[in-house]
Amino acid sequence: MNFFSKAAEIFTNPNYLQSVIEGLKTTVIISLGAMVLGLALGTIVAIVTIAKKNRWLILPKAICKAYITIVRGTPMALQLFIMNYVIFAIRGFPMALIAIIAFGVNSGAYVSENIRAGILSVDIGQTEAGRALGLSNGATMISIVIPQAIKNVIPAIGNELIALIKETSIVSMISIYDLTAAAKIIGSGNNMASYIVPMTVVALFYLAIVYLLTFCIKMIERRLRAGDKR
What is the mean pLDDT of residues 189-203? Predict the structure, then answer.
C-alpha cells in the first residue's frame, strides 16, 4: 500500500478518522487551557518580580524567582511526570487537567520573563506621567505600562505559545490520548514503515494549528500597529 492510499484510508476509515479527531480534540483542549494558564500566571509573576521593594513582597518575590529558575532549568517531560505521579497522584483526577496545569506552569515561567522584559522596555517617563496624573502605582501599571509592554512582547509570547502546542505531543507519555498517541495506534504494525503515513498526517495537523495561531498573532500585531498610527 503506497503513501497516498494509506493517507486516504485514514480519512475514509471511520475508526481511523475518529481516532484522529479524538486526539486532535485533546491536543486543542490541553493547548488552549495551558495557554490561558501560562499567560495569566506569567503576567502575575512578571508584575511581582519587577515590583518595588516592599517587606510584604520579599517572600512572593523569592518564590517567583525560584519558580522561574526551577521550571526553566528542568525538562518538560520530568515536570509532567512529577505533576502526574507525585503532585496529582489522586485516583480519578482528570488526566487532561494535569497536563493543562503542567504545561501552563511551564509556559508561565517563560511568559513571565518575556513580559518582564517588555515592561522594563517601556520608557520610565510613561510611569512618571501616570503618577503625575494622580494614578496609583497599580493603576499606572495596569492602564499605561502593561498595554504598551504587551505590544512589545507579542512576537516573543507568540513563539512561546507555538512551542507550547508542539510540546504537548509528549502527553502520551502519561497515557493521554492526543494526536501523537492516535498516530502511534493507527501505525501500530510489524515494521517502522507503517508509522510513516499516520505520523505525517498528524504532523500536518500540528502544522495547521501552528499556522492558524501564527496567522492570528500577525493579525493582532497589525491591528496594534494600525492603532499606533492613529
Answer: 74
Question: Whole-model pTM above 0.70?
Answer: yes
By residue count, the chain amounts to 230
CATH number, domain of 206, equals 1.10.3720.10
Reduce the DSSP state of residue 230 to 3 states and report it. Answer: coil
The single-letter code of the amino acid at 122 is V
Question: Could you give the angle at which helices 3-12 and 14-50 cross, rounded to 10 degrees?
Answer: 80
Which grid coordinates belong to 227? 492603532
With a CB cutoff of 8 Å and minimum separation 6, the contacts of 42 are 107, 108, 109, 110, 111, 112, 114, 115
Query: What CA–CA distance (Å, rounded) separates 173 from 10?
Result: 23
Please give the tally of structural domains in the chain. 1
Range of the domain at 155: 3-229
Asked if residue 155 has pLDDT above 70, the reply is yes
